[in-house]
Design a protein that fits this description.
By secondary structure, the chain is an alpha+beta fold. It folds into two domains: about 1-65 and about 240-275, no CATH class; about 85-220, Immunoglobulin-like (Sandwich). The protein is built from five helices and ten strands, in the order ααββββββββαββαα. A hairpin with a 3-residue loop joins strand 1 and strand 2. Helix 1 (about 1-25) packs antiparallel against helix 2 (about 35-60), helix 1 packs parallel to helix 4 and helix 2 packs antiparallel against helix 4. This is LPXTG cell wall anchor domain-containing protein.
């Protein structure tokens, strides 16, 4: 954010220079009456153009919010999972669908087998909830982004589970694969369209677990990114809203200055015309 502060200062100084240049007194002695009568109109256009152009430039440099979901990393001693949380799964309505993507791999030095299973979360799911999960798994390359799904040509398999099939004590096996590979699981939940009454006050939670290399780790669609805070000694950036406030106040000040100068110039117009 430091570079934005420098940018704000540069824009403010540059805009101030433009305003001073625009309203610096000119020698009007050599100009005829017609030119002098038209000058207030030209000045008005000029005074409004400078702050408006500045406002457009400042707006273009305003920091924007990052869109999209951020992945969550679940790390065991050897097993690794990366999940792309699904906010849509938390607010599903009858007839809607939502997907959740998870990659699983191992960093163990020795080869072995990893087993993936799906189950209900700690809170028991409502067995009457008409929610169906289509679970697709496929092998992927390590560098393939989570949001790209299963690549073309990669062998994949899909299984369907109902809410009643999943509970906290029964694990439903999805796939077992070599620890030297990376497996992607795409879980798509679909809520039956004619289920308004059944959905009322009902809920379901699911977990995807990975077992292998002597350990078990798991993740759910509700997991949130763990974003580490920047150490204080290294955090030299301004607060996110600080620069925006400085830029906004600068723009307001310059617009006010421009309008005030414009009104002052117009108040002198009748005297100049009579002369």
């Amino acid at each position: 954010m430091v570079h934005l502060a420098v940018l704000a200062g540069g824009l403010t100084l540059g805009a101030a220079g433009l305003v001073v240049w625009a309203f610096w007194p000119r020698d009007e002695g050599a100009e005829d009456a017609e030119t002098r009568v038209l000058k207030p109109q030209q000045g008005g256009v000029q005074s409004l153009t400078v702050p408006l152009l500045l406002f457009a430039s400042v707006t273009a440099f305003m920091p924007s919010e990052v869109s999209g979901e951020q992945s969550v990393r679940i790390e065991g001693q050897h097993l690794q999972m990366e999940s792309l949380p699904s906010a849509e799964m938390k607010k599903m309505s009858p007839g809607s669908s939502a997907s959740w993507v998870v990659d699983t791999w191992s960093v163990a030095p020795d080869d072995g087998t990893i087993e993936l299973s799906i189950m209900s979360g700690p809170a028991q799911s409502d067995a009457t909830l008409p929610l169906v999960f289509a679970v697709t798994n496929c092998a992927v390359q390590l560098e393939l982004p989570l949001d790209s799904g299963c690549p073309d040509g990669s062998p994949w398999e899909t299984r369907e589970f109902k809410t009643a099939d999943l509970n906290a004590v029964k694990e439903r096996k999805i796939v077992a694969f070599s620890a030297s590979a990376k497996q992607r699981v795409v879980i798509t939940g679909h809520l039956v369209a004619d289920s308004a009454k059944a959905v009322h006050d009902a809920s379901a939670t699911i977990l995807l677990s990975a077992s292998g290399s002597g350990e078990t780790i798991s993740t759910s669609p509700d997991d949130t990114p763990n974003i580490p805070s920047t150490p204080k000694e290294e955090n030299k950036a301004l607060p996110p809203t600080g620069v925006e406030n400085v830029l906004l106040l600068s723009v307001i000040g310059l617009v006010t200055l421009a309008l005030g100068t414009l009104l002052a110039r117009r108040s002198k117009v009748p005297g100049d015309i009579d002369a």
